[in-house]
Amino acid sequence: MAMKTAFLFPGQGAQSAGMGRDLYEAHPAARRVFDRVEEISGLPIRRLCFEGPEEELSRTDVSQPAIFAVSAAALAAMRERLGDRVPRPDVCAGLSLGEYTALYAAEAMDLDQAAELVTRRGAVMQEAAEAVPSGMVSILGLDEAKALELCRAAAEGEVLACANFNCPGQIVLSGQSGACRRAAELAPRFGASAAVPLKVAGAFHTELMRPAADRLGEALGGMAFAAPATAVVANVDAAPYAGAGDVPAKLLAQLTSPIRWQQSMEKLLADGVETFYEIGPGRVLRGLMRRIDRRAEVTSVNGCEAIEALAT
Question: Is 158 strand, coil or helix?
C-alpha cells in the first residue's frame, strides 16, 4: 500500500491570543485570507487573533471564524512558500469546526462560503448555548459503553449525551448544567480516572443545538457546493463525503450528533495514511493522535517557523 498523506484542521479550543500574527506579517497569501475573513465576518478578526483578549477570543461566535482564518491562512502560506514542493493530501479531515476548513481545503466550498458559514455557525451556536444553561465535561478512562451508562445515570430527565469521541479514554459528555455536574460527581463510580468541566458556552453536539441547526440550515440551503476534489472524512460517521449533496446534511448532523474523531483517525490509519499535517493554531490534534496511534507522524503547521522547517 502506498504511503498516504492527510491534512487535519483544528476546532474550537485551539485558539490563543497571538495566533496567526507571524503568518500575516510574512506572507501576502495569508494576509489576503485574514482580510477577506474579516470583511465577510464583520468581526475584527486580526485584532482578536493577534491581540485577544483571550476571554473575547474564546467566545464561540468569535473563536470559530478566528480559528478558521488562521487555519486557512496557514494553508495559503504553506502553498505560497513551498510552491511545487507543498505536500499533496490524499484526504482531509477537521475536528468539528475544522471540518469546514477541510471542505474548503478540498475545494468543496470557496473562501467566501466557508467564512460566511463558520461565522453563522459560531453565532447560532452561541445563541443556542445562552438559551439553556448547559456545558460539557471531559471524562477520562471510560469506553463508549461505560460513558453511555454514566449518561443514563446522571441525566435524571435532562439532556446529557456523548458529544466527542476524541481518543482512547477521552470522551466528552454534553448537556444541561445539572446533568453535567452530576456526571462529574458520578464518574469515579463508573471507573473514570477524572472528570474535567470544559470552558465552553454550552452543550455542543446534542439536541440542545437543534435551534442552531435550523438556522444554519437556512444558510446551507442557499449555497451551492462542489464535490470535494480531495477525499474528506466526516465527523458524524467517520466516512468520506460521497459528493456535493452530502455537504449540507453532514454539516447539519454534526451540530446535534457526536464528533467521532477517534474513529475518523482510525479510518485514515486503516486506509494507509502515515503522514499527517495539522494545519492551524495549536497542537491539539497532534496530542490526540499520540493517544490513538503513537507511530503516526504528525507535523503541526501553526506558524512561519513550521513552514520554514518544511521548506528546508
Answer: coil
